Amino acid sequence: MILQLKRLFDRVGEQTDFSGVIPLEELRDLGTSLEFTSPISLEGKIQNIAGMVTLDYSLRSSLLLLCDRCLDEFTKDYDLSFSHILCLNESELTGEDDVLIEDYVLDMNELAVSDLAISLPTKILCSEDCLGLCPDCGGNLNRGECRCQG
Question: Is residue 14 part of a domain?
Fold first, then answer.
């Protein structure tokens, strides 16, 4: 989803709402290592307040993930919200949530996937009480007691 923002940058007080879906085919074309099981649904608004252009949006999607403890695949739904200040020049960037855009054009597909990827925890677990694998035989302890001799 490409958003043209020239009018927003030119007019203080201007606001626009947007919504849309990033289809699975487009998500695969972005070359990310994330495996989506549903399209990304986006909804948000961009506004120019006193010359500062802000973006507030939410996304919903599902990912197929691999548990770091037991190595099982599982699907997890995400419903996240993000806020950014949009900048046209590098000199305007002041914080980590600032986004540099070129020629008044914002690629929401790229930004949404990036925001989602950054939001994922460093340790991905199928459940908080995941028991993991037996250190001796490698059996999945979530499926029952290990019968190894170790």
Answer: yes
Cα–Cα dist 145/142, whole Å: 8
Assign 83 to helix, strand or coil. strand
In a domain, 148, yes or no: no
Q: Is residue 33 part of a domain?
A: yes
pLDDT of residue 93: 78
Q: Which residues pair with 22 in a beta bridge?
A: 40
First to last CA, the chain: 54
Contact 63, 79 (CB under 8 A): no
| Binned average pLDDT, 10 residues per bin, the chain of 150 residues | 92 94 80 82 95 94 92 94 92 84 92 88 91 89 78
Q: If you count them, how many residues does the chain have? A: 150
Q: What is the domain extent for residue 9?
A: 2-143
Inside any domain, residue 88 = yes
Q: Quote the CA–CA distance of 10 and 89 in Å, as a whole number.
A: 15
- In this structure, what token pair is assigned to residue 98? 């600032």
- Tally the domains of the chain: 1
CA distance 121 to 142: 21
pLDDT for 67: 94
